[in-house]
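Need tokens for this chain, all 685 residues.
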Amino acid sequence: RHCTDTVCCVIFIVVILGYIALGIVAWVHGDPRKVIYPTDSYGQFCGQKDTRNENKTVLFYFNILKCASPVVLINLQCPTTQLCVSKCPDRFATYIDVQASYRYRPDQWNYFRQFCKPGFNNPRKSVAQVLRDEDCPSMIVPSRPFLKRCFPDFSTKNGVLTVANQTTFKDGRGKTRNVTDLREAANGINNVLDARSVGMKIFEDYAISWYWILIGLFIAMIVSLLFLVLLRFTAGVLFWIFIFGVIGIIGYGIWHCYWEYDHLKGIPGSDLTVYDIGFQTDFRVYLQLRQTWLAFMIILCVVEVIIILMLIFLRNRIRIAIALLKEGSRAIGYIMSTLFYPIVTFVLIAICISYWAVTAVFLATSGEAVYKVMANQTLCKYANLTCDPETFNTTNVTKVCPGAQCTFAFYGGESLYHKYIFIFQLANAFVFLWLVNFAIALGQCTLAGAFASYYWASRKPADIPLWPLFSSFGRAIRYHTGSLAFGALILAIVQLIRVILEYLDHKLKGTQNSFTRFLLCCLKCCFWCLEKFLKFINRNAYIMIAIYGKNFCTSAKEAFFLLMRNVVRVAVLDKVTDFLLFLGKILVAGGVGVLAFFFFTQRIPVFAQEAPTLNYYWVPLLTVIVGSYLVAHGFFSVYAMCVDTLFLCFCEDLERNDGSTAKPYFMSASLHRILGKKELSPKKA
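Here are the structure tokens for all 685 residues:
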């Protein structure tokens, strides 16, 4: 063993160090509070500790009618003054009415002024000036907080939209308006609030049933283990039952088509051809023709003959595939620790996802507060220009545009760092893809090395290393980090291109340029096929790296040509393996799912009292089914890697050895018998 692809290894290490540096820079400049806390018109966070807004956790909009939709309120900036308040309004009120009743109802002013700008306490100021300077809102409506923002408290009464059981309100500008005018400003908010209610019920269901969900996943793990162990004895039986079942079903189809064909004999109109009646939208018309059933019968006969001929000519290869599946089950039985290696891969990928997500958030919040002129007059020449709130009052903007204000707009910046944030985000995504693919490659190479040590052991299990999985992991890290990084790099480049193509396709969906859409569709298809091909090549290259310790390119070339020399065996083994593992996943997920259904619906008398009372029984049920499928997929992915490794070792064994005393085979006795060898040749010690 020696280090392979050292240049790529060095580059990989440098990139990781650079990725760490990028994260540090993002963490220094970024501020996730910009995502957690809403920001008022002065660029200050609502609810932030040790600030004057510490007890003001909700954002209030002076004139919500200016906001087009909740999307604008949440993601962009609504063109009205935004203020941090301690709670949302709980009543209808207008500044005009509050000012008029100030002398004999000062309590109304004291309530209303908490929604005015901090420090404003002049109820005698004219209404026109207050509204021009936006010292106070013209009106307040009963609201409730959602996403830390005040939205009108909509409800439906007898099919009529209301706010606090009222259908009209005063807008504070001398008009009485219908509450439906608020609907556009808060479009879809009821659906979102209903979704929040459903979300709370789902959360309650998880809180009650999490213990039973874990038990269900544990049962799925046990069933998956049993299935893999029993494949040693049932692989052939399951496969041949399926094959003869398919042959039987097709045979029944041929008989049924002949029966229909004979039954229609003599019926008027049944001897017409498809050409005679032309195209019909009601396809049942074609079923009244003898020609239709004759065509179906011929097609099924052809399929039946093809399947039978394939079984005849590929019978030995099918037997080899089944023997390799049984050998894989036996290998896993000797190296049980491999079944739990996917947990390591999962942890590594979880770390990569967490680091990428945190870095992306900090990069997205790296900007400084940008302020812009907000003017009530649409023709103000200073509108939407950047401004400085500290010096704004000394400029002539307020004279040219009365009522104009310098308010917070968004987070950004003009420095070199801020200009390249998009590039940094791309780099963050690219390195993330590279690291994830490296974690997967490390797992594949580690498992391949462990199973290869089983195959090439002269006496099984005596010659298997003491800790094959840990030894293989150590070899992969110590000698082949560069090769694994090289394969992961190629795949990451293709995946990044696919991400960019998806982004462009999303942006150009509205375009009418047919050629552009066609070109993008072709590119997406080509790169999808390229990614699938590269994954296949990489997987087998990692196996060859684990066996021989050569560099990535040499291993990929040797694996590719080795597979091409055994292409029929590859195809047969791949399909047989896919079928059995898919059957196993369905068996595990379906069996545990049925058990969970009867349990959570309290249909098992023994556990009826133990079953929790749920809002939606399908919440834990779907979780158990999906979780069981993922658990089975994790175990079966190890089995698939085992079979692929043993297959490459088997092909290498056939090409390198001839079964003589000098070059004995390392394959199992069952494979020897399939190849026509009556007994094993003595192996070298």
